[in-house]
User: Fold this.
Amino acid sequence: RLLNIGDIIRKMLIGGMFMLSVYICDDSRHFAEELRSRINSIDMASKYRASIITTADKLRAMLAGGKRPDILFMDVEFGEVNGIEVARELFAGEKTQIVFITNYVDYCSDVYEAEHAYFIRKPVTDEHLSRALEICCRRLERADDKVCFKLKNGIFGIWLYRHPERNRRACQRC
Assistant:
């Protein structure tokens, strides 16, 4: 049986050969460190590489440098800025899975202004954290993927589709 390239990549991702990048965006370093520690203690922790970002400017700088997270935990009140607006501005149309986190229930409706996978109210429970990561991983698995290759004369991308028929059509166009 032949496997299409999308299935092979998904199996490697689920099998732990690739790590998912996680950005924890919170102006409280203490909270972000605690959340990273809890993510690392989850059974599937070998799948995640978590980075802490404490300001919107640092997040913009990382994104400008070409670093894109697979999963983003975004504090709704992210320092002086609104995390919902930052997520909508920087991640519109991206496959990045966003999990909003806040102390305030007032934002429950506002989070729908930006695409997101989950909403957690602080304090974060292990149950909600595990559920959020599970949903994010499932959504990433379903997404069409693009593999990029950096060569001498530029960066080239190949789209990998979940459906074998779409893969055949994409290959026929090559």
